[in-house]
Amino acid sequence: MLKKNLEEALNKQINEEYYSSYLYLSMSAYLQTINLTGFANWMKIQSQEEYIHAIKIYDYVIQTGGNVNLMEIKAPKTSWKNVEEIMQDTLGHEYFITECINNIASLATQEKDHATMSFLKWFIDEQVEEVATAEQIIREIKMVGDNLTGLLMLDRELKARPAAITFNVGMAK
After folding, report:
1. Is residue 56 situated within a structural domain?
2. pLDDT above 70 as % of the chain
3. What is the mean pLDDT of the chain?
4. Residue 6 CA neighbour count, 13 Å, CB half
5. Whole-angstrom distance, CA of residue 46 vs CA of residue 40
6. Which residues have a Cβ under 8 Å from the Cβ of 40 and sit 6 or more positions away?
7. 111 falls within a domain
8. Cα separation of 126 and 130, whole Å?
9. Is residue 169 part of a domain?
10. Domain range spanning residue 131?
11. pLDDT of residue 90 exceeding 50
12. What confidence score (pLDDT) does residue 160 get?
């Protein structure tokens, strides 16, 4: 049985993951309006991944006898000055999500909830990848600088990102 404090922390994280999905979808929409369709594609897929993360936690809470309590999702930012600002916001948000996951992992450790600690390992590893990817894209944007040809080449590269994995509700993997 999932302890109440962990249930509450996981429910809060479900909300954070849904907000992440909403934020990245907002970024995708903005990028679409400035005709950076590759960046927009990358962000839309990122949004889908965050939604999947929320569902994984949702399923875990239910599987461990907890109750899912969905909360209001705050409205995300809707405009940025350039693509570098978007990626800096992405990186900052991924640092925040990493801190959230780490805090839940610390709580699970404190509570000696080995099942939740095991479950969270995937998220901890995923956050390493999320931060590294955002940092790499920022480095590439900085290398390109004001060169529009370089930006369009990077945009084309990001357009090739494959779609997010599919999932079956109730079967989080």
Report:
1. yes
2. 94
3. 94
4. 26
5. 10
6. 28, 29, 31, 32
7. yes
8. 6
9. no
10. 4-159
11. yes
12. 86
Give me the helix-helix angle, 83-110 and 4-33, nearest 10°. 170
Q: Please tell me the distance from the alpha carbon of residue 158 to that of residue 40, in angstroms, as a whole number.
A: 9
What average pLDDT does the segment 134-145 reach? 97
Query: What is the rounded average pLDDT of the residues 90-100?
Result: 98
Is residue 140 in a domain?
yes
**In Å, what is the CA distance from 56 to each residue of 18, 29, 46, 149?**
12, 25, 15, 40
Considering only CA atoms, which of 65, 52, 53 is closest in space to residue 7? 65
Domain count, the chain: 1
Q: Which residues have C-beta within 8 Å of that of residue 80, sequence separation ≥ 6?
A: 27, 30, 86, 89
* pLDDT higher than threshold 70 for residue 167: no
- E-strand stretches of 13-150: none
Residue 145, pLDDT score = 93
Domain CATH for 36: 1.20.1260.10
Spatial separation of the C-alpha atoms in residues 69 and 85, rounded to whole Å: 33
